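call fold(seq) -> tokens
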Amino acid sequence: YRLRLLVEGGFVRLRREGLNRFAEILKQEVGQ
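ret:
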């Protein structure tokens, strides 16, 4: 159960970081 929470938390964090990175790339593209 606890391992499942860790795995789900990891996926959520990975998805969030991916979105942040995507936003950073979009900002750079718009800035140019």
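The CA atoms of residues 24 and 30 lie 10 Å apart.
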